[in-house]
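User: Hi! I'm working on a homework problem where we have to compare a predicted structure to a textbook description. Could you give me the structure for the chain below?
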Amino acid sequence: MVFLTIDRAMRLCHVAHCARYAKSDSLCLIHAKLQKPRWTEKPAQTMSIEMLTHSNESSASSVSGSERRSKKNRWCSIADCEQLARIDGLCTRHNMQLSSKKRKCVIVSCNSYARTRGLCTRHGGGNVCRFHGCKTSAQSGGLCRLHGGGPRCKHPDCDQFSKAGGLCGFHAPV
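Assistant: Happy to help. Predicted structure tokens:
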């Protein structure tokens, strides 16, 4: 296992007065995004989010692979969206909106996300804690947090629950 030294792992952004950590090319994510070149061309044909949710899946598969990779189709297909397309001609935000609409619980009056079998945890979806008599949703290990399930801190000799980056609140860098 390779451990990063603090000097190597925690470099600050090179932009003056920026206190964020560098992620790419010695810049934080915000300043790296600001310096990326933007293409001036945008495809003429754009769709609304409603058109995409009600359209058939066959329309997305009719576009050839070379057309998807061309420079003209690098923009999100949603009208007035100026983000780059990442998946199936959509930016990350619009792709998540569409996929989350597909993952809603099948119970008519429920707006929660489906876990398994098209049901949310309130209606029987997902895994239930394997502790006898417990009906809470299971975390890692098949147990709920009350009975010992959930991710633990990666710091040696620490058994607290992890909060961010695999570390508990005590061991996470400030």
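For your comparison, note the following. Residues 75 and 147 are 47 Å apart (CA to CA). The helical segments are 6-9, 29-35, 49-54, 58-61, 65-69, 92-102. Good luck with the assignment!
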